Amino acid sequence: MNAASKLPWGKWLTLAWFTVFSIFCIIPFLYIVSISLSNESDIANYGYKLIPKHITTHAYDFLLQSPKQLLSGYGVSITVTVIGTVASLLITTKLAYALSRKDFGGANSLSFIVFFTMLFSGGLVPWYILIKRYLQIDDSLLVLILPYIIMPWHVLLMKGFLSDIPPALIESAKIDGAGEWRIFYQIILPLAKPALATVALFIAFIYWNDWWLAMLFIDNQNLIPLQYMLYRIMNNIQFLSTSMQSSNISIDITAMPNETARMAIAVMAAGPILFVFPFFQKYFVKGLTVGAVKG
Amino acid sequence: MQKKTLKTTTAALAVGLLMTSVLAGCGSKNENDNNGGNASPSNANGTAAAGEGKLDPVELTWYFDGTPQADIASVEEAMNKILKEKINATIHLKAIDWGNYDQKMQLVNASGERYDLAFTSSWANNYYTNVNKGAFIALDDLLPKYAPNIMKTIPDLGWNAVKVKGSIYAVPNYQIWASTNGIAIQKDVAAKYGFDIASVKKFTDIEPLLASVKANEPGLVPFENDKGGRFGSFNVAYGFDSIAGSIPGIVGLQDTSLKVLNQFETTAYKEYLATMRDWFQKGYVRKDAATLSDTSGDRKAGKPVVVTEGNVKPGGEVEMTGALGGKQVVDVKLSEPYLLTSSIISTMTGVSKTSKNPERAVMFLDLLFSDKELFNILAHGIEGKHYTKVDENTVDVIKEGGYDPNTDWEFGNQFNGFYRKGQEPGIWDETIKINETAKASPLLGFSFDPTPVKTEIAQLSTVTSQYVPLLDTGAVDPDKMLPEFVAKLKTAGVDRVIAEEQKQIDAWKASK
Fold it and tell me: Transmembrane ranges (chain A) (predicted)?
């Protein structure tokens, strides 16, 4: 039982575990891609196959035949994600920076307020009333952006990163005559790049994947983001197939997109974020470990 | 190092807590709002004077279930032209997706948002829940005053069905009310194997057809079943009326003493399960039926040869043929038509407690019952833009028109509407005739208040959702699993629920 033989064992186990885990993550996605490229009748006859029996782009053709809704969905999703990520990142970082400064007297109590909202929330209904009745921003792009603009979790994450920047650095900048704004933009931000990239990715994911806000607040069909379009289709089919059986009503489900088309939408919704990820990855690994070891 | 770990743990914990608190917010909402009690129609009389003479202009908002339509604006505009002139009102139509409607309406009601009309039913935006919460106003005084056409159209039985504690809280839409159990059989397949459809009297009679299909048509599914099971589709055929959907508790349709039984303990259920087990083992249903929730793929491919009809009704064959990808079907009735509370309340419109102009909302509903033009704009859109006329009473949808809700049963008096292309002219009259001649269930008009046995019902639905998919599809051996299921129901408090149902029914019977 010496250490040398034990280590590869452990490594091998880790490797195997992550391989299996990755496979579990990848296979469902491959299924989605495969189904979206299959013939509808193949699915009905042979079930789901990892490699389609006959490859066809029929589902995508079908979607692109009336691309208006799809394009507007993309437009909304991209706009919300870009504006939301930039705005949210800026505000989150500013707040986190203030909280991380040791010479800021209110830092602790302000931190507590931020933290407090993680533990307790007003609940769904008061929140709904606030947005609908008092802010009156429902049915606009703003309602898709504003509610996620400050996530306490991101603020605390960011604060953790920024706390590691030595205060001496800020002091010396001050001595050299830099103002607060200049310190923030020209010294803090460049130093915090890995953290910014990490948090930006988190934020972008949240905006891109969100359908909840749209479900609650959007009526205008031109402001529907892509994810909500997808969610709606899936949810409707499920609801109708369970509730129609016993009810005295007739709803035409044949008008709903069929299986291949649904999967094609899923691929199109997942696509862009897949391409974004590699660009962030470089920073991502670094960002997660920043602050783990104190110098 | 240690400090950091602590920090992350705290943060992770915090996220967890945050999620639970959000979820708790959703869950507890129902209870909080229950003490609202029944709405009083107090504000109904205050504005009664406006009923005649000049009306102030008002805006009405209507929430209903359905896929939002692209060109809703021009439909609203066309409707408003008529409404302005007749009742000086404008309508704002808010269609909410099928799957989201319940949640959305819960929020709308809980937040006290102003709206005037809402679709309500037994299966979406639950009627009784809304009435218990006081979301709708009682319409007993408003209807005779402002809705003469509705009163003329809806038979008394209909009002009995929608009454809760003696008051009317919603206007039932006039569509097919009678409930007739039955199955649809693919015509060509039956002909191919020389199966005489007319010989089917009960659903087990189709077995020879299923056997030939299984033996010769590997691409087809002989009998469609899924995790919802099919027992509910045969309730009337077995001679039952269920009290509260899938919650245990039924009453025999012939039983005037109104004795409540647990359907899962009846011999009918036992026989049904034996058949299902047999069919499952012979391969007449899909092997994965117990976990299957979406059969629309199979249907579109025209695979199932025999499917249960939710309700056998005039025009139903055409609908099912459409659903099965154009495969011609023949409907077989397995029961007499019966008027059930559940079949009547499956589509209604309620007037919100938050409505500023309930009397105008009722007048608007009344117009939908009397004004064919208005109804058809709402149901089918604008001629030339959303549909073309095939003949005087039949319309054909323009696919790119941007308006085709295809839910005319949701908008008042369906029999006011045009037929859609493919529907046989005359089915409205036939439907009315069935409604008028159908026998009434002895339970018609009774509504169960689940509040006293809420906990038991929650436990029961956990048990049923665990066992019903397995038993009802034949995936497990009923000889072994049924006693286990019944025992679990007993532990979950089925007897208390049945006793409560019996108590309420007895009280209801005595008050009649």
Answer: 12-33, 74-97, 109-129, 141-162, 183-208, 261-280
**Cβ atoms within 10 Å of A93's Cβ, excluding its own:** 24
3-state DSSP percent of chain B in helix, strand and coil, to 5? 50, 15, 35
Q: Is B51's pLDDT higher than 50?
A: no
A220 touches chain B (CB under 8 A): no
Interface contact B300-A258, CB threshold 8 A: yes
Cα A32 from chain centroid (whole Å): 20
B positions 122-151 inside 8 Å of A (CB): 122-124
On whether residue A251 sits in a domain, the answer given is yes
Assess if residue A132 is contained within a domain. Answer: yes
Choose among B26, B94, B343: nearest Cβ to A248.
B343
Facing residue for A121 by CB, picked from B22, B179, B219: B22
List of domains in chain B: 39-176+341-441 (3.40.190.10), 181-216+301-335 (no CATH), 225-294+449-512 (no CATH)
ipTM of model over 0.90: no
CATH classification at residue A57: 1.10.3720.10
> Range of A188's domain?
40-293
Model-wide pTM > 0.90:
no
pLDDT tops 90 at residue B304: yes
Beta strands B170-172 and B348-351: pairing type? Answer: antiparallel
Predicted pLDDT of residue B31:
36
CB contact under 8 A, A41 and B111: no
pLDDT category at B497 given cuts 50, 70, 90 is very high
| Nearest residue on chain B to A217, alpha-carbon basis | B104
User: Residue B111 and residue B100: Cα distance in Å, rounded?
Assistant: 17
Rounded to a whole number of angstroms, the distance from the CA of B259 to the nearest CA of chain A is: 23
Number of domains in chain A: 1
Chain B residues near residue A293 by CB distance under 8 angstroms: 1
